[in-house]
Design a protein that fits this description.
The chain is of the alpha+beta class and about 400 residues long. The protein has helices at about 30-40, 95-100, 115-120, 165, 200-210, 225-230, 265-270, 290-300, 345-355, 370-380, 380-390, 400-405; strands at about 5, 10, 15-20, 20-25, 45-50, 65, 75-80, 85, 105, 140-145, 150-155, 175-180, 185, 190-195, 215-220, 240-245, 260-265, 280-285, 310-315, 330-340, 360. The chain has three domains: about 5-65, Uridine Diphospho-n-acetylenolpyruvylglucosamine Reductase, domain 2, CATH 3.30.43.10; about 75-185, Uridine Diphospho-n-acetylenolpyruvylglucosamine Reductase, domain 3 (2-Layer Sandwich); about 190-370, Alpha-Beta Plaits, CATH 3.30.70.2520. It is built from twelve helices and 21 strands. Bound molecules: flavin-adenine dinucleotide (FAD).
Amino acid sequence: MNSHYQTKWTNWVGNQSFTPREIITANNEAEVQHWVSYAAQHQLGVRTAGTGHSFTPVVETDGLLLNTEPMRGITKIDAAKRHVSALPKTTIGDFAEPLWQQGLALANQGDIDTQAIAGAIATATHGSGRRFTNFSATLVGARLIDGMGNLVVVSDEQNSEVLPALQTSLGLLGMLTELTIRVAPAYNLHARYETLPFAAVLDHLDEYINQYRHLSFFWLPTDASAKLYCLDHGGADDCVVKLYNEVPADTQLPNLPANERVDRSYRIYPMHYDPNFHEVEYFLPIEHTRDVLHEMRKLMLRWLPLSVYPLEIRTVGADQAWLSPNYQRDNLVVSISGEPGVDYWDYLRACDSLFAEFKGRPHWGKLHFMTADRLDRLFPRYNDFVAMRRRFDPQGTFLNAHTRKLFA
Ligand SMILES: Cc1cc2nc3c(=O)[nH]c(=O)nc-3n(C[C@H](O)[C@H](O)[C@H](O)COP(=O)(O)OP(=O)(O)OC[C@H]3O[C@@H](n4cnc5c(N)ncnc54)[C@H](O)[C@@H]3O)c2cc1C
């Protein structure tokens, strides 16, 4: 039974909201197929959301919004191949225990584990670590409903030419009804947390990037910055640093110092955020790391108090997904935030100009200033993606105002 209702949809942080013509619950693939076909026949747009953690208007529609909440859960674990299949609304956190029971784990994770796997893959959500890719690159197969209402199966054996377009596709090729991802053997993480002056982090940067599985840090422009991201330590010009290395799944380390922890990987990754910020994130070639850090520090100090939120720094390894910001490039990832309700757009534009000098590519789920022309210059396979989008959705049933400007 489908429920239909008209109500306002709002994302997690509250900076994007819209009222679709109708919100319709789709319980399974057949119902998704029915409603996409219906929308295409009636020239209506149709979209679906993950868990609404994107800051960009990627979910918005004035047509039908499919509520796929019932489509959650793992459908298959192939421990020998290290492949796991799941329904689109399965959250990152939902994978943890069932994979661990089979001696498996997600190879990497970001700062939270509440996103839906379909949403995380659609926007190339990532963690940190130069030797690791984002979630999109782990997609090895999928079932989806295209813009004409056809079921399409993508895997190594079927429609494999579609995979690099589908891996990061913002829901523009179709509604994903099942996803298969590659996972890793289960592992513990040995985490070390340091609060160090900016200059000290720069002194050790190459070691941190190359010798740790995971490096991330928050640079704090003021004494007030740490608490905005729920961090316990650090004053002006400090960095709150996280360094993780992999240790075997059964490792116990007694007598660890207070700033170290060993635990299952999925317990170490997530941190807490309050919904008190809007985020911008760009990916810059890793060889420019030092220049980017120096320039960002100068820029943020110039723009205080608008730039009071911490600067988050991570790394991500290259992949082959056409719209991935890491397409054939290892990146330094730079994230900045602003306070909802404050006019900080001039500051964000100043950051965007700096990122543009380094050929920065955007995170699809975070605020950015892209145009179709810029995307064409930044993503070598941009035109191939646009052609694939037209093949899968010739009527533009999945486009909305935001994505039409970028990909129509
Ligand atoms: C507090 C916070 C922390 C974050 N931390 C990180 C981080 O560490 N690393 C990082 O990279 N990003 C991070 N993000 C960004 C976030 O991971 C991405 O925006 C991600 O897309 C959100 O997933 P979601 O499930 O909420 O998807 P949504 O934002 O709801 O949707 C994203 C896209 O997925 C599409 N989609 C959803 N389901 C389907 C489907 N079944 N078929 C086709 N398309 C679909 C939607 O239409 C939309 O285009 C963070 C965001 C917040 C708010």
